[in-house]
């Protein structure tokens, strides 16, 4: 069981487990329903592995009709549902519920259509992020968002968390690259949003769904935008004597009107861990390392490399290396892409945090983070999507040492509060889930949170989809409406008031 408070399990639902199991087996026959405790262990956590909880039942549908029927049954019988993709969520977004069905979408794993004329690909939500690029790269195309887990994470999960990656600075997050969705509402109704066309009429419900963390519906089909690979791509590896120098360089590059294809930063602990793991040729005598990739026409790239080098030298850069081949460029990125597993070799456990700040605040935040590390008595390795201010501090701890997990969580909460304090936000691409749920009041007022919950109520009146995530206090939908008192009687008098 997790230490974070989750909704108390409904004992009436637990008592009906066999009845629910039989109904779901009738909808998804064969091996599509998992109910043995040992077999369900594979689903007890996502990538936020400090927290574990067995689901009531696991269901793996293969068709949209099965998804629709499962959701309709759960809606009609007041059974909670937690949608799940590849389980790579770092915020606990796919943590199961003891009295809830875990709906795994990983059998939806086919590429359905590749349309080069419209530069669009239609896939099922279980297709991996990198799988989309693999499907189109032989024609010189690729899918731009590239989270570090792209070899494993599913496109459906990317939509749930609005994932980004190295190239999101220039080419946008998931929301900027998704054109259309097919989704199933909790009532079982199947709807479509958007398509291959550039824009749709009416409210932008497509953007609303992207980043909704499984609270509004279950995605069953995705249409994404693909891009042609640029003519040229080269990268600079830039080392600095201090992290503050690196932070100022990032801000100066953007201020100069240069938008790199990617701009990533690592501090000394992350540099050494990545170099030990990959042997990418990173300098070990620097406190901060910046990887800046420029792409486009060859002449433009050559010119911009010169401009970036000038800016780096003006910010006290002590090491500048420019890629001279595609192999060398990929080697630069190999260390960064492997930073998370690399840090796993230097600490028994770590929490991967995710907050976003204004770029100009990067030097200040880095300095404050060192103070927080001393306060909590824990190490931290920092990896940043530096260009858009998305921080990924990796807090190092040992879960076998009493109190260290609590200290790591307190350290992480202080980092996220710092992000909000300097004008940033609690998350950039990992989502809120359970990890940041209880910090939402540090960023939003009660009125803000109630308004967000009204959106939830419009899609899920009974709060059956992924409850316990995102909102620290969940109000009943009836309470969020205007409370009209008629003849001294409140509406819905049977509902307990919070």
From TrEMBL:
Q: Which InterPro entries match?
A: FAD-bd_oxidored_4_C (IPR004113), FAD-bd_PCMH (IPR016166), FAD-bd_PCMH-like_sf (IPR036318), FAD-bd_PCMH_sub2 (IPR016169), FAD-linked_Oxase-like_C (IPR016164), FAD-linked_OxidoTrans_Type4 (IPR051914), Oxid_FAD_bind_N (IPR006094), Vanillyl_alc_oxidase_C-sub2 (IPR016171)
Locate the transmembrane regions by residue number: none
Q: Which Pfam families match?
A: FAD-oxidase_C, FAD_binding_4
List the Gene3D superfamilies.
3.30.465.10, 3.30.70.2740, Vanillyl-alcohol Oxidase, Chain A, domain 4 (1.10.45.10)
Q: In its keyword annotation, does this UniProt entry include Oxidoreductase?
A: yes
In this chain the FAD-binding PCMH-type domain maps to 51-229
Q: What is this protein called?
A: Putative FAD-linked oxidoreductase
Query: What is the source species?
Result: Roseibium aggregatum
